[in-house]
Amino acid sequence: MKMPLSWLATASWSAPVLRRFRMSRGLRKAPEGWSTPKRCRDFRIPSPMIRFLLLLTFCSPLFAEKPRILFDTDITGDVDDVLALAMCHTLADRGACELLGVTVSKNNPLTASFVDAQNTFHGRPDLPVGVTRDAKAQQRESKYLKLADSPDYPHDLKRNEDAKDAVELIRELLNAQPDHSVTIISVGIASNMANLLKSPGGVELVKRKVKALSIMAGAFAFCNRTNYHLEANVINGIGYMQTVADQWPEEVPIVWSGYEIGEALPFPRVVIQRDLGYLSHHIVKEAYLLHSGPEHDRPCWDESSVLWAVYPERDFFGLSEPGRVKVLDDGFTRFVPVKNGKGSQRDRFLTMSSVQQSRALEAIVHLTIQPPPMK
User: Fold this and answer.
1) Residue 234: which residues within 8 A CB-CB, separation 6 or more?
2) Distance CA 111, CA 142 (A)
3) Which of 73, 71, 75, 119 is nearest to 291 (CA)?
4) Domain that holds residue 48
5) Is the dihedral of CA 194, 195, 201, 207 positive or negative?
6) Shared domain check, 123 and 152
7) C-alpha to C-alpha distances, 167 to 187, 204, 214, 274, 334, nearest whole angstrom
8) Which DSSP state fits 162?
9) Do 198 and 286 meet the contact criterion of CB atoms below 8 Å apart?
10) Which of 37, 236, 311, 336 is deepest in the core (most CB within 10 A)?
């Protein structure tokens, strides 16, 4: 039971305590309005156990466990993955989360090297990196991964062959964490998530170790001038996303960030031009310009999933009613809400008001451009 604050204001000021307070300030009598109620004159300092319980009662938010984050990305084609990874590092620098590792879900010979270069740029050269070994996962060209070969971004991991298999790394990281403690952020095709579920004991491992899946995939509202948008992370690997939608454990919630959320969060080009010039070579700035050029405000699709995963309680987004996402054979994501309390309640998708839109975009910008730690 929580004790009222009025109790602390009176009972804690027993006669000896109040007398010492007066003496320490040269007061001959108690300050005006202060008194020592009779019920407090015989007050005794609570036992250590009671003091501990009181501390937990009034300070429990300070002891809230920070999220453990595993970032799964298809960092090849679009540049929002680069900005989202920068956010993960900033949030870890601020103590808002613990970044466990990064896995890549698409095939390109430079993915491991680029991710290691960016991790090193942000002060985490030894962060574990895994890449897909699934030959069926999409092969994707990139405009910016070549930065991995630049001497401006030193790093150790030079070849995909020297990186761990993504699914093996995910399993290793999950097994090392407490039960129900890891939030997986998936911002690409779902090859690694599907192959994790298909691996021996994969479903049970997810059920035991994963707290939530924050995934950027699908579309759940009018966007891109249609009510039937086929979103890229789904259609570039429909079978993978169907596996996740069908086989992900019912006990582990999935929060979907649809295309419409990122579309409404355009990253301001002026920020890239003006706010990342504090270094002569900035990997986020150079990647953005190589991909989008200086005259484009790139939507923050992947960044939205990061923001919700680390700050689900900050009201940057709303949540739909619970239900279940079904991935159709053409890649369309259909949400089936709970009816009369019946049906799956595993899935929700992000919603966003105009006020939340402004707050979310400002948070994304600041979390993206924060300078890395001093070397």
Assistant:
1) 217, 218, 241, 327, 331, 332, 333
2) 9
3) 75
4) 5-61
5) negative
6) yes
7) 16, 15, 18, 39, 27
8) G
9) no
10) 236
75-84 confidence digits (pLDDT tens) = 999 999 999 9
Q: Which residue has the higher pLDDT, 63 or 322?
A: 322
For the chain, the farthest-separated pair of C-alpha atoms sits apart, in whole angstroms, at 83
Asked if 10 and 78 sit in the same domain, the reply is no
Q: Do 9 and 148 belong together in one domain?
A: no
How many whole angstroms separate alpha carbon 152 and alpha carbon 299? 27
Same domain membership, residue 337 and residue 218: yes
Number of domains making up the chain: 2
- How many Cα atoms are found within 13 Å in the side-chain-facing hemisphere of 98? 9
DSSP assignment of 265-324 equals -BPPHHHHHHHSTTSSS-HHHHHHHHHH-TT---B-HHHHHHHHHH-TTS-SSEEPPSEE
- One-letter identity of residue 333: T
pLDDT in tens, 11-66: 343 444 444 444 444 544 544 544 444 444 444 545 555 554 544 444 444 446 89
Residue 324: closest CA among 258, 248, 260: 248
- In the structure encoding, which two tokens stand for residue 15, read together? 């006669």
Q: CA 353, CA 329: separation in Å to the nearest integer?
A: 31
Cα torsion 346, 350, 351, 354 to 10°: value is: 160
Pairing of strands 318-319, 254-257: unpaired
At residue 7, the pLDDT reads 34
- Using the 3D structure, point to which of 13, 42, 61 is the last residue of a domain: 61
- Is residue 33 located within the same domain as residue 155? no
In whole angstroms, give the CA distance from residue 153 to residue 262. Answer: 29
Concatenated DSSP letters for 33-88?
Answer: T----HHHHT--PPPHHHHHHHHHHHHGGGGPPPPEEEEEE-TTS-SHHHHHHHHH
Both 289 and 271 in one domain: the answer is yes
The closest alpha carbon to 174, from 137, 211, 200, 215, belongs to 211
Question: What is the average pLDDT score of the chain?
Answer: 88
